[in-house]
Amino acid sequence: MSTVDPHRVMMTGENPFIRLSETKDGPETTHAGFWRVIWSPAGPGHVLYLKSELTDDEWRIYADNIAMARWLQNTIQGVLNEDLADVTIPVIDAEFEKSGDPNYFWTEQILTPDEDITLTWHDLGDPLLVHTEPDPTGRPYGVCTILIPAASARLTLNGVQAAGQPWPNDREGRPFSTCALAFSESWTQAR
Angle at the Cα of 70 (from 64 to 72), degrees rounded to 5? Predict the structure, then answer.
């Protein structure tokens, strides 16, 4: 049995997310998808895709590598969320910092001349290893990642906290959440 995945590696990095809502099954009030890309055809970098009442329910994109942000929109991110396949959404130049210990909490800070955005995950659960294959008839990309569910998470923009909260759910019978860290994430495409 081969230990080498037969598919083409598209990128590797991290992709933690925050999805908040006022009620368990209610509409998302905040959707934040953060990427720290270690390797991709468009180079390394960071990007935050954010839609919230704090952004007037409009998508905002913050990045330190616009080529990588657009590459993600044209590939993985655009498949995960059709709205983000729109490459006419402006990209705001930003700086990125991280801190924390993923056993306890994790914080990502995004800074622009006008905005200070902080994403924090805490009350972290047991990690799950997820591995999916590319499916030409469905989602064309596969992923192998470590997901760490967060029972608590918050997002602030210039000190104002986004409304809503994370909600528990399950992933194939394992405790999960609408907010999670996603580390050691590699995306693949069929050759």
Answer: 95
* pLDDT computed for residue 105 by the predictor: 98
* Residue matched to tokens 């990128």: 11
pLDDT at 1: 83
Measure the CA–CA gap between 107 and 55, rounded to whole angstroms: 20
Residues 6+ apart with CB under 8 A from 17: 31, 32, 33, 34, 179, 180, 182
The C-alpha atoms of residue 167 and residue 6 are separated, in whole angstroms, by 36
Q: Quick check: pTM over 0.85?
A: yes
Q: What angle do CA 172, 173, 176 make, to 5 degrees?
A: 85
Residue 30 to residue 48: CA distance in whole angstroms:
13
- Which positions ≥6 away from 93 have C-beta within 8 Å? 62, 63, 64, 66, 112
